[in-house]
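Researcher: Good morning. I'm working through a list of sequences from a screen, and I'd like to move beyond sequence-only analysis. For each chain I'm collecting a predicted structure so we can compare shapes side by side. This is the next one on the list. No need for commentary yet; just the structure.
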Amino acid sequence: MANKLLEINGVSKIFRIGGMLRGKKLVAIDDVSLSIDADKPVILSVVGESGCGKSTLCKMVLRLHTPDMGDIILDGKSYKDKKSYNHKQFKLDVQPIFQNPYESFSARKVVDSYLFNTALRLGIAKNKEEATKLVDEALKSVGMSLAVVKGKYPTQFSGGELQRVSIARALITRPKLIIADEPVAAIDASMKMNIVNLFKELRDKYKISFIYITHDLSTAYYVSDYIATLYRGTLIEYGSAKDIMDEPAHPYTELLMNAVPRVGDKWKEDLVLPDMEDKEYSITYCKFAPRCPYATEECRKDRPELKEIAPGRKVACYHPLEKTK
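Model: Good morning. Structure tokens for this chain:
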């Protein structure tokens, strides 16, 4: 069995919306399992509509949320084992890239100060001279340089340029895993492919694995090695990017493929919970059954397990092969 860089084992996360008495329970992540091998860096895209649980899953991997059930294991160390948790080492191994680069930097601080702080506070550089070299190397790896960035404020950069600085900052620690949560959502369409191309280059050059959280399916298809589809907090399909996009086995994934034909197309980002959608989160049978044109009585009775239908290809559907015809 291959060594695992990351194992997400049956994790669930439950939130309460509203007050204690009349509030509603929302199972944002429902028994999700995924893994990334340690021996070969990959880009795993987690896709789905807003509210499907993508960002919640991302925050659990980043230790910003604690799973209510299940466990996450990084490099053989369980997140439940609090005694062995090394905060500094975790920051060296796992780095985030968030959606809006302007929210990652204060308008009152020069951008390069963030990169120097990362290098010095985490002990990657012993002094300012070493930090200068590391910062310049990181910026050059994303097509910039310290000479271009030094002394400038966030407002002096475009969204795409600032996101490159965010990526450079993440690279300073030489992480094993980067969590990119909607990293191109706030960037002009002309710059989207430059950023996702950069992910592929960094994967190959520095052997870094990525979890790419997105609802831009066309960039997911282009950049990903593997794709995992979430629906109402449940993992419903997993496989290679080519297999998933060219021949989806789940009717929901098929619906997504048909709805997003080109770069930049995406779903509405606001989480809205009308009655139908609200109820779907708590359904104990197939959550997509109320909307699925292929649903049978079996689908409305029990929830299908995520099963392997081909090597490396999994789907949670009672009749997956029928949907791909």
